[in-house]
């Protein structure tokens, strides 16, 4: 039979409440009592039941990690970092896939069934009403990797996507490209619109137009670039608003017999692991994943500890990663 709290109390010669306090972070217990309880627990092979303790503390330590980008390999990297960071903070991630969910209220009901202590929305395409619904229900919520000027009063952690678009245009112009275009992700995504805004404003007369892939996916990037090639002569270089779309575009260009970067230049955004593979070598704009994840976890911890704290917006800088899909600087 499983070792119980009472078994440990009997072996240590203390009360059940003393055992409970010993295994409750921040609870008051003397060093002598703690030593006796820990020794008894080790002898009996006792491990605290975190689910049972949640009934006492009112905290499950579950954090809903919500996204709708599970098919994008970049987000697998993000989820890996999030799960590690949450676990290191003593929290437990609950992955929630909203790929086919359009109703914020239904999603909220699902999270409530698990009594999550907070929610991290890791998406650039979920609309602001999702974070609004979570916050209105009293759930601490952080929106990571997304940004919208119409977003609710919510903690936000992202890069400055307008600045990223500006950097992309400056990068292409500096390499002598006279006709440059934007191949973005879904048109409705706030990040897509902001990246296009920054790119178009800095590109000026060199801007030849924008096209939008229906999803952040390899096949979507390849199909969209094939369509652009069928339309006839276009841009000398394309800024793709996501690495996986850029890699799909590279595939389409190579299938068409075009040399990259000799005939067409490609610039991505994110710096996902795959972008650095030798057979891809994508020049891209790096999004600081580790820093965004760390900031998001810190903010959700702060909100759980203090429900009255004011939300923050943290915009982190991005940087160019030089590889092999753009011509060199003159």
TrEMBL record:
Q: What organism is listed for this UniProt entry?
A: Salibaculum griseiflavum
The record's SUPFAM superfamilies line, in alphabetical order, gives: lambda repressor-like DNA-binding domains, Periplasmic binding protein-like I
Q: Name one GO molecular function term.
A: DNA-binding transcription factor activity
Q: What residue stretches are annotated with the HTH lacI-type domain?
A: 3-57
InterPro entries, alphabetically? HTH_LacI, Lambda_DNA-bd_dom_sf, Peripla_BP/Lac1_sug-bd_dom, Peripla_BP_I
Ordered alphabetically, the record's keywords are: DNA-binding, Repressor, Transcription, Transcription regulation
Its protein name is Transcriptional regulator
Q: Which domain of life is it from?
A: Bacteria
């Amino acid at each position: 039979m499983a070792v119980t709290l009472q078994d440990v109390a009997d072996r240590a010669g203390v009360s059940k409440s003393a055992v409970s306090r010993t295994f409750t972070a921040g609870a008051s217990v003397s060093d002598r009592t703690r030593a006796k309880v820990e020794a008894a627990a080790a002898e009996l092979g006792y491990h605290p039941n975190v689910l049972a303790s949640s009934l006492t503390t009112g905290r499950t330590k579950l954090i809903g990690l919500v996204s709708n980008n599970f098919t994008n390999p970049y987000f697998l990297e993000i989820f890996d970092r999030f799960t590690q960071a949450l676990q290191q903070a003593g929290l437990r991630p609950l992955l929630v896939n909203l790929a086919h969910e359009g109703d914020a209220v239904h999603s909220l009901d699902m999270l409530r069934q698990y009594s999550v202590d907070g929610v991290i929305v890791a998406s650039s395409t979920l609309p602001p009403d999702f974070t609004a619904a979570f916050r209105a229900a009293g759930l601490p919520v952080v929106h990571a990797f997304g940004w919208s000027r119409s977003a609710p009063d919510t903690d936000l952690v992202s890069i400055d996507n307008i600045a990223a678009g500006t950097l992309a245009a400056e990068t292409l112009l500096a390499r002598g490209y006279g006709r440059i275009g934007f191949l973005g992700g879904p048109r409705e995504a706030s990040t897509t619109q902001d990246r296009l805004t920054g790119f178009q404003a800095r590109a000026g007369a060199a801007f030849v137009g924008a096209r939008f892939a229906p999803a952040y996916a390899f096949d979507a990037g390849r199909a969209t670039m094939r369509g652009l090639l069928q339309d006839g002569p276009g841009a000398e270089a394309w800024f793709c608003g996501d690495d996986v779309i850029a890699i799909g575009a590279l595939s389409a260009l190579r299938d068409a017999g075009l040399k990259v970067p000799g005939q067409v230049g490609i610039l991505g955004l994110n710096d996902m692991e795959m972008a650095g593979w030798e057979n891809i070598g994508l020049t891209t704009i790096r999004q600081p994943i580790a820093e965004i994840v760390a900031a998001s976890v810190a903010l959700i911890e702060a909100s759980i500890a203090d429900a009255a704290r004011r939300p923050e917006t943290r915009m982190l800088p991005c940087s160019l990663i030089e590889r092999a899909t753009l011509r060199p600087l003159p």
